[in-house]
Specification:
- The structure is a single chain.
- The protein has 94 residues and is mostly beta strands.
- The protein is built from no helices and nine strands.
- The strands form two sheets. It has a five-stranded antiparallel β-sheet, with no helix packed on it.
- Strand 5 and strand 6 form a beta hairpin.
- The termini are far apart.
């Protein structure tokens, strides 16, 4: 499966900020979040979230409406928007 493009904007002792850009069908790849994190959607979009138990959930991001994720979350996120989607991930290091 194609991969979303990530650009680390900065990475300090306390926080890591990454911009993610996905063409339609691009995915993060299966991963586990090491830290709590905040997602700030830039474009908004629709994503399929493949959970570690094999289930799939739909996620609709609204542009400029942030949401919180938690350390230990394990999933793959696939853009199903029909267009390019971009969001910023802010990881809150312990």
């Amino acid at each position: 499966m194609p991969s979303g493009r990530s650009t680390t904007n900065f990475d300090t002792e306390n926080v890591r900020v990454t911009t993610w850009t996905f063409h339609d069908g691009d995915a993060t790849g299966h991963h586990r979040h090491e830290f709590d994190y905040v997602i700030v959607p830039i474009t908004g979009g629709t994503f399929a979230v493949l959970e570690s138990d094999g289930s799939t959930n739909d996620l609709i991001q609204e542009a400029a409406v942030p949401y919180l994720g938690h350390a230990g979350t394990t999933h793959d996120v696939i853009n199903r928007s029909g267009r390019t989607a971009t969001f910023i991930e802010i990881e809150l290091k312990h």
